Design the sequence.
DNA sequence: CGATAAACGAGACGGTACGTCTGGTCTTGTG
DNA sequence: CACAAGACCAGACGTACCGTCTCGTTTATCG
């Protein structure tokens, strides 16, 4: 059973369920201007080269307004990223679990091959020096996805009890970690061939084969 | 046969096989002062928070001298890192290939669990915004190691032809990538249990088991 | 006869003889809170270092309320200053004019030697960059006093026609200006000796001497 | 005898008679650019409204360079002011002391009537909240001049022993303070009539008269 | 041995961004 | 309408590093 993951929003300041005791309310349009300016800048520059000043300038907004609501560049980026549903890797529940995992993995890898992957890499890069950023990434991007994947693996095990008795966490790591490793190290492309063949190789180790229509062969 | 990997030194400036036409020679003590100042600072701070000025100050050296010989902070760090043989993961050739791989992986994981791992993470972090850094990391840290691992995997295959016919690259990824992923994401500790059990699980998928003395059971 | 000096209140906004057409009336307690908060802050800080925000905070009042009724920090200070009758230098009319002038000058100098003098200096300081402040100071603090002094000098002349035939304005300047000059330049203390001897020296130039009880010797 | 007044330059940082231990030498042209930019801005704005950023912008210079050599806006202004010999009120020693004093006072008053006077007022204004500025003004502008004036008054006393036996300091105050008071309060113009008549009135109190050619009548 | 030439320290310099602060203005809701 | 609360833009604050530069000094090699 899937543990319910709390998607808390650590890095964002306040927002404690509405105190609202008078005072001008926060401007929604300003908030959106900041986030979309951030996305625009991210298209042409790495997080590390973007400045809060540039975001403010691009958004036509005062620096202080950004600092009032976020406490680091990375937090703004993460919010902007989520807001625009940049990474979406739905897990299907209406098909064979192995097929669902295959589709999910390929969807993830394809997205990580492009611009969103670059940004994820940069967020993780920021996270290396700032644990808060790393934590926020995990809580807002990773935990939920990981939990779902674990769950589907467990379902697969019920259908196919012949799968080796190996910790699910380890299986998930073997399947998914390469994508992150290739992203961070730049060794081994995340290209069409890799996306096609790697998961097939992985599942074959578990004794699961797919036909030409990517259907599981029982 | 192991391909001889060229350990080129991309980021370092000049050093073009000695023009040496007069002039004061480069001071070796200065070079060492810079590198060890860098290491010292790295012990208490992330690369991202270290400045060239701080290195110069700590080393009692002029900023210009650093800029003369390196062209980025990350290059200095990488040099300092290598100089002190911070990461050493020898691959044994006198034992069973599977045992050699097991020992090598564990040695690597143990080192990545500590301070050297933190630094590697930060170097890769820098690399996300600066491809030259990423490339230098690959060329100076990764290619060599990867090539050796691939080679030993191939030797293993000769001894154990029953190993599934899967691309060696993919196998290496399944085994090694998790270490990098855990490093970068901070999800899943690189702790004793993980170091003990993960490779055992991995090799069991290949049909290779170890006894209590970590000897391969034929 | 003293010209009637109009004590207009230039800097204060509106207050146009009461239109009062409905609506919540201005809160007197708020007004007082602002002024006494201002005085409190003035005790420990120069005008130049006080901010409207600090006054609002101290008074528990909204910034906008302050801006509605005053249009500069200096105006608030001047109001606060007057409200508390900080500087009071009564001119006696029941004694010999020279004695009245002597007492008046000494009372003024004594007050300028202390904290009120510091504040006056700071108000005049603000006035150097903002003519409106300078004008307000003159109209609310200076004109009245000056007119009274001129008047008493003229009375003195009637009693003592031997006083040199010099413009009264010039005489007043010679007597009073030093206090301001010492205040602004900080050269020459406004101390007991100065307060005792300077006016005696001045009056002696006019041929007026005082006995040990500060009575004019006719 | 004139006390030798040390014209020290308190507010300016370092400059300790040349340490010169290597390092790029200070750029004289940069220094001049800063000072003349300051003067230019002063022509159209009060010190209080000028910013270090504006000076840096106008001079084409980095803010840090200004902060390296001066530690307050007022110090820059005072330096700029002195550099350009804005206020020069020479005291002649080859004529009758009373004539010298008359000429000196008028020269001073004339200059204080114009733009330089405005700037002096603003410097003194800054000084009200910042004692260091007040002190610097005294030490660099005032002490020297005051000492010279005192000295000439003493010479005058030797020639004309009939001058009332009044402290020289008090006499100087009676003569000169009005100029400062008028400057700071804006009450009483420093106009042609004042410049012509005030000192005549003053000296007549001392029993000194001038003919139509401003020669002392013995 | 004296000339040449690079290495090196010191530190000035123009830039750019930092994160904070104030000044004024504005936009709500409450009394 | 007055007012508190507080969001907001504008822009200066003083600091920190960046990477480059200009000096004077040192230390080798070569002629």
Sequence:
């Amino acid at each position: 059973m899937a543990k319910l993951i709390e998607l808390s929003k650590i890095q964002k300041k306040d927002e404690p369920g509405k105190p609202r005791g008078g005072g001008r309310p926060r401007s929604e349009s300003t908030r959106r201007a900041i986030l979309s300016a951030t996305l625009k800048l991210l298209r042409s520059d790495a997080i590390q080269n973007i400045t809060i000043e540039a975001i403010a300038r691009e958004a036509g907004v005062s620096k202080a307004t950004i600092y009032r609501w976020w406490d680091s560049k990375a937090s703004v980026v993460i919010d902007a990223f989520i807001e625009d549903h940049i990474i979406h890797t739905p897990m299907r529940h209406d098909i064979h679990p192995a097929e669902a995992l295959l589709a999910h993995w390929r969807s993830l890898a394809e997205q990580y091959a492009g611009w969103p992957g670059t940004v994820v890499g940069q967020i993780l890069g920021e996270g290396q020096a700032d644990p808060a950023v790393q934590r926020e990434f995990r809580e807002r991007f990773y935990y939920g996805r990981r939990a779902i994947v674990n769950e589907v693996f467990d379902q697969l095990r019920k259908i196919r009890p012949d799968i080796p008795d190996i910790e699910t966490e380890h299986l998930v790591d073997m399947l998914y970690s390469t994508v992150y490793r290739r992203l961070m190290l730049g060794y081994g492309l995340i290209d069409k061939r890799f996306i096609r063949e790697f998961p097939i190789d992985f599942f074959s180790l578990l004794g699961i084969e797919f036909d030409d229509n990517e259907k599981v062969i029982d």
Observations:
- Chain D touches chain C through 48 residues (CB under 8 Å).
- The two ends of chain D are 24 Å apart (CA to CA).
- Residues 1-11 of chain D have pLDDT under 50 and may be disordered.
